[in-house]
Amino acid sequence: MLASNLIGIFSAVASAVSWGSGDFSGGQATRKSHQYQVLILAASSGIVFLAISAFIWGEGMPPGRTIFWAGLAGLAGALGMAALYRALSMGNTASVAPTSAITCAALPVIFGLITQGLPDTSQLAGFAVAFLGIWLVSRSANAREKHFREGMTLAFLSGIGFGCFFIFIAMVEKGQVFIPVLIARSVTLIVALIMLRVRRLPLPGPGSNPFALLAGLLDTGGNIFYLLATQFTRLDIAALLSSFYPAMTVILANVILKESLSKTQLAGIFLCLAALALMSL
Predict the structure, then answer these.
(1) pLDDT for residue 94
(2) Domains in the chain: how many in total?
(3) Which structural domain range is residue 100 located in?
(4) Mean pLDDT across the stretch 203-222?
(5) Can you tell me the distance from the alpha carbon of 165 to that of 170, in angstroms, rounded to the nearest whole number?
């Protein structure tokens, strides 16, 4: 039992690292291309990787229930990724990433509240710390600018999309990993193609945006690790630990892009991470 839980925790942390790196890559890719063009490339690279992995692993076709939940997860994930990539491309990574993470982390806890009863004291304390952290991290010299407000709105929308993804993908049949994620990514690709058509945007070339392809591989890796985590530990623990992904995004933005952090925002980030820790106890 202990070994199983440790595997789940390790997988959840690995998913956070993969997702955080993928979000940074996706944000960079969206500075060059439209978010739905980025989403198409990201989904495509992920699908190729998943198809090869499923073939090597020998996973068969899952039952209809798994296909249904994986499809819903793909739809939610597509909307979440598009909103997040657009928000990150506007800058303010230190505000956007934690806000998205806290929003998506809260949804599985609420779901657990409805299905499993009231969470424990540490999780309730985590909610209080989270709200304070979001308020602090959202305070910026640019907070009154429309550009900043739009980015924060997109961050909340992305959090809702990812939170629904966390819940839906955890509903798939135990023991399968690559095929459910492959179905989810395929739905993501279909949604991106439809939105591209609606907006009359050109289809991106395979090599037009390497950052988008990298984002797809990293995000897919995060999905695989998260699904593994849900099969070895509780849903709320897997979701909350996986929600540490903004730490990696912010670190990369600070190191590579030299994005500065105010003391207030830095305090907000630490509070957001502390909230995640409290809710995962």
Answers:
(1) 67
(2) 1
(3) 2-280
(4) 92
(5) 8
